[in-house]
Amino acid sequence: MNLSVNWLNDFVDIKTDPKDFADKMTMSGSKVETFDNYKNHISNVVVGKIKKIEKHPDAQKLVICMVDVGCDNEKQIVTGATNVFEGAVVPVCLDGAVLPNGTVIKKGKLRGVVSEGMLCSLGELGLTTHNFPDAIEDGIFIINFPVEIGQDITTALQLDDDVFEFEITPNRPDCLSVIGLAREVSATYGLTFKRHTPKFTTDKNDNISNYLSVEIKNPKLCPRYTARVAKNIKIAPSPLWLRDRLHACGVRPINNIVDITNYVMLEYGQPMHAFDYACLDGKSIVVRNADDNEIFMTLDNQKRKLDSSMLVIADAHKSVGIAGVMGGANSEITDDTKTIVFESANFNGANVRHTSKKLGMRTDASSKFEKGLDPCLTMAALDRACELVELLNAGEIADGVIDVNMDNRTRRTIKLEPKWVNEFLGTDISTQFMVDSLKSLEFEVDADLNVTVPSFRDDVEEKADLAEEIVRLYGYDKIPSTLVNMETTQGMLTREQTLMKTITETLIAQGASEICTYSFISPKIYDKLHYPADDIRRDSVVISNPLGEDTSIMRTTSVASMMSTLALNYNNRNESVCMFEPATVYIKNDGIDVLPDEKTEFCIGCYGKEYDFFTLKGIVQQTLEIAGVYGCKYIPQTQNPTFHPGRTADIVKDDSVIGIVGEIHPLVCKEFGFGEKTYIAVLDFNVIFANSVTEKTYKPLPKFPAITRDIAVVCKKDINSAQIEDIIVNRAGNILESVKLFDVYSGSQISDDCISLAYAMVFRAQDRTLSDQEVDSKINKIINALAEIGASIRS
Amino acid sequence: MKEKLEQIRALAKDLIDKSSDLKEIEDIRVKFLGKKGELTAVLRGMGALSAQERPVVGAFANQVRSDIETALELKKKDLSEAEIRSKLKAEKIDVTMPGKIKKLGKKHPLSLVLDEIKEIFIGMGFQIASGPEVEYDKYNFELLNMPKDHPARDTQDTFYITENVLLRTQTSPVQVHVMESTELPIKIIAPGRVYRSDEVDATHSPLFHQIEGLVIDKNIRMSDLKGTLDLFAKRLYGNDTVTRFRPHHFSFTEPSAEMDICCFSCGGRGCRLCKGEGWIEILGAGMVHPKVLRNCGIDPDIYSGFAFGMGLERIVMRRYNINDMRLLFENDQRFLNQF
């Protein structure tokens, strides 16, 4: 909402430094975003009068003007414009002038003739024919109204005005108006608010009842409809002062009648509409729901398809406007309009919002109505419009007004409790200040501190709202800073949060960097991950109004985001990368409006020469151990289409699957544009948490010596290391302290289909020194058991 | 006999002086003090001495033995020290060469700052709560005093799943969950992802992070909100930080406020960073709206509270001078390595 200070001064006498004004208004609750003044963008441009025009000696298209700019010497200015004439009053840039587009005008020579400045067009002044309808776009701006020669152009055109842009919050539609803001300004500064009551005369011999009747079919959506008729209309441009004010508020002047409706909307916050009476059939206005599939052409010449949830203004036969949104092309004000109907109505905010959304058209009017306007506004606004018609000599007002008022709201009363207010705010504000503040905002306060809320402040409903009104005028900066005086609470992480932190820190310590990716992905990524068409993981939560296909569904797997991120790094030539994300995935549940499960997965991904399957598996093993998950098994997983069938394992703890670790299938890598082997592990945080043992118990350090033995086992390649380790652990019994694979060999010394796995074993008893015989007998048991699966000891 | 001993001592000392390595020292020890050594031989001949002479010569012989031993020890120490010195000299390395670094990962800048913020609030006795990102309209809006068709909804462009389910546009619904499920008093923060259908550009992202805060008990005052958030700002931005609270509007708080900090770049004079205002908006806050308390089954005549919410990305971007929000979600290793 833009506010012109010239306009504001109609209602409050205030003259202040713009920065100070912006600060004060911001601190009392009307936030100023920016402020500006036309004069800040233009300098050294004055009004001049062309005294004499001569031909340029060396240029056919140029002329030399002698211009009176109010000082002793006339200025010689060369111009190529063709619309200048002796006696014309024009804007003149003097030497060193600055124009709104940043151009600096300097004294110079044009084809050998000195030019001491420049004559300006409207465009060069940063203006258009909307500001000055009589002027032309392509030529010098000829000023055809009384101005002083030599006067600064900003003053002459009445453009010296501070304009403030306010951020108005949705609860304060009353402040979307000059009057509303003037009320705030007067309360903030403690100045008198100059109320204006519109006055105009009517033609007593001609009553509105001769023209019109109004019927509201749906009073819920239209609580009030107020109308007057004006006749003998003379359509013309509005006067400069009015055009300037509209311009300051960013509204384009059009003609006197349309400008009046806009002017009143800006001043009162009440949108208005003017119908050409000649276009209304049957002397009647009916406010009713539209017909389903009704096609209606709005003022902007767009055909709109309406439905019965929308409200229209109609005459006896046809719709003539969409209520609160836009009027119809069929009853538009034209240059030939002779009689008009001014509409000043109140429409249901939610319905206007719904209609404007559905039609995809947000107008100045709809954006005001949808916030819920005060039904009491309609009459004052209507009268102001009639007053302006008279003032602008634009027509004559028929006697009488139609006011169909179905608004049955009563004024709200709230008890002011000063003690409560101070306890609630932590302040010590006097009751007198509270009362004065509320009164300055037009609340009525009686001797028992019953506060009656003004009709335009529908947002004030209870005592907390009163507290806010008081404290914003008292000053938030005067509220003391205190600390909460309450029962001591413990600030700490839960077990789950601690485990999340531990895992994150462990991964970082192992060289993985944390990433943060979008939770929404493209459904096409599932194809890239080679999920079969009927894969349950494709069943995602779908966004009904996504920004684009790329971000249209909620991911069911963190692998999608990890692969995209690794690919980005690969394409950015980062040689070796290891990353992880504590990622949320969204698993759909059956049923309508049932929320999905949101699960956290730790997804770890890497590529580059430092990394292979076993480095990633090592990171996973270490992480699980630090997380307190012991005894996990890694079971070959050959079926997952995203992963390499021979280089992938499920990570299993007892009966629960913690996750997966493996090399990404080379074809999937290709889908993401990867030319390198990529490894990814996914760990389900919930399963980790469920299996995490965080209590630690000390075991005494060994008192007796250990015996170590190494064996090399030769077996067929389809036997895996975990099987052999299981046999060793089973057969060695409780004197086996540890077993570790330390060498793997395949090659010329053993047959082609075999592999040699060398294990280092440590034996120790807690209560005695072991004998060699004891250990040997265990080794023999191991060898015998290995023989059963066809494995032998390599000598 | 005594002369003989003197000679041995003199000879031994001479040899010891001239010796140049540990092996020679050992040879000298054997030569004089060993079982077949010269001093041992002299001592063996003591039997021939008279009873008067024996103790005198014996004492002297012991003295000589001790002298030789001491001399040997001293020399040995000298030599081994010299040996170590030369070894150390040979072992000299170029300590200006780079160290061997075990690769560490990096924490994401959003996490770095979030962790810091969590620490600050944990230190003030807050716990950390969370709630779903795919949320009911009811929790995201209605119970927060934004019924359907409420104009305030327009300020938060929403991704919908169905008419009643959406991607939360704010972390505020966590307030409702916590009020519904937790015993009073409440003192929590709730960080998390939120979604708004803003096109991606340098300062906008359809997904970003907020940190919500909520305190509810008897006698919680607006001055407590000011004190708590002022302390928070000082912990996060330094003790000299100046804060400003100004009126604002949120549907779920009344009175509502926004907190600004005095621009740390220009000190309040106005610059590009603060868009000439001298202040930088940090968070929104307010006293929990009595309607919201009622919606959550809490009696506003007995309890009161305050809530606040802030965007993490903006704080992170200002902290590290990051000029494009997209960098935070792109995760280029070269970007992450900088933190």
Spell out the key features of this protein.
heterodimer; A: 795 residues; alpha+beta; OB fold (Dihydrolipoamide Acetyltransferase, E2P); Phenylalanyl-tRNA Synthetase, Chain B, domain 3; Phenylalanyl-tRNA Synthetase, Chain B, domain 1; seven-stranded mixed β-sheet; six-stranded antiparallel β-sheet; 40 strands; B: 339 residues; BirA Bifunctional Protein, domain 2; two-stranded antiparallel ribbon; 12 helices; 9 strands; 42% helix; rod-shaped
Describe the structure concisely.
The complex is a heterodimer of chains A (795) and B (339). Chain A is of the alpha+beta class and 795 residues long.
Descriptive notes:
The complex is a heterodimer of chains A (795) and B (339). Chain A has 795 residues and is of the alpha+beta class. Chain A has 20 helices and 40 strands. Chain A folds into five domains: 39-156, OB fold (Dihydrolipoamide Acetyltransferase, E2P) (Beta Barrel), CATH 2.40.50; 202-405, 3-Layer(bba) Sandwich (Phenylalanyl-tRNA Synthetase, Chain B, domain 3), CATH 3.50.40; 413-478, Phenylalanyl-tRNA Synthetase, Chain B, domain 1; 495-691, 2-Layer Sandwich (BirA Bifunctional Protein, domain 2); 707-793, Ferrodoxin-fold anticodon-binding domain (Alpha-Beta Plaits). In chain A, the strands form ten sheets. Chain A has a seven-stranded mixed β-sheet, with helices on both faces. In chain A, strand 34 (643-653) and strand 35 (656-664) form a beta hairpin. The longest helix of chain A has 17 residues, at 772-788. The mean pLDDT of chain A is 94. The relative contact order of chain B is 0.10. The model of chain B has no long low-confidence stretch (mean pLDDT 91). Chain B has two domains: 2-90; 109-336, BirA Bifunctional Protein, domain 2. In chain B, a hairpin with a 2-residue loop joins strand 6 and strand 7 (253-262). With 339 residues, chain B is α+β, with helices and mostly antiparallel strands.
